[in-house]
Amino acid sequence: MNTDSSHIFSDEEKDILQEIMNIAFGNATADLGEVIDIYVELSAPSIQILGIGDIPDYLTDRMKLHPETSIVAQNFWGDFKGYGILVLPNRTGRSLIAILDDGEPNDFEMKPIAGQEREVLMEVGNILIGACVGKVCELLNTFVTYTPPQVIHENSNEYSSFVDSFDPSQTAILMETVFRFKAIDINGLLLVITSQEAIEWLRKALYEFMEPYE
Amino acid sequence: MIKKILIVDDSPIARKMLKMCIPKDKEYEIYEAVDGLESINKYQEILPDVTFMDLTMPEFDGYQAIAEIRKISDDAIIVVTTADVQRKSISRVIELGAFLVLKKPLKQKNVQETLIKVENALENRSGGK
To answer: Is any Cβ of chain B less than 8 angstroms from the Cβ of A8?
Structure first.
């Protein structure tokens, strides 16, 4: 799937972006820890250049890590433009609800379990994607606007519509971080995908970020 | 007095950023390792006065490396440089014996203040002997 992409993004540019993603995801997990008492084990992020048309296959491949998978997806746009996608096994929502359960009845717990799971996933996705993309923007001195997060189950019509929305003629930079919710023994991954039109801006912003260190 | 500094990070950019934050006029000897395993071998080889250690690295991470280095030397001064600023991560590295934790992205001022703290710790240590 990976072709020679050095003309699109050099190794040095990938290294800078990888470090920025590392910083951003670290901050995002700390933000999540303020809301839910959960520790997240992190791994080093990876950066790949892909055709956007390859992303559905890539997602399908990554979702094979779990028997049934859900994604939380959020678009963002500005100078930095693309998608944030959180991939998690289906049981994550239920496990997170158990962590949030403080024994006090409330409106949230009156909802059907499927609704609760969807809301928890949406909130976790919103925090991780928002905090991660937000930190990238802060470091690169820009800002973006987000669509509301949507929870999409694998093999659903929504999922087909979601992957059909990718323009196969475009190139994307894909940033991936694998993580683990330690207390509930669940692995997930966060993908941040930039659209082709953001690549030129991104390259310039990366060098501006490094200027104080040159 | 600090003579030798070991920088441990899998990211070449992170290592470069840290090196640029270290004052040039002090003429420190700077060594680098790209993961936790290499850091242990380098530590034994050069016995640095201070080690800057990333946490999130493939294969052998910073937590494992800190524990192993502390087995080699109880006196090892390890400054953790990390983007993982979760409270549990910070308390875990402090329990492992880290001297200080610096949040990424590193700032020149913070790195220089840290080096002064390390100098003071080394002076107190040699004065006490």
So the answer is: no
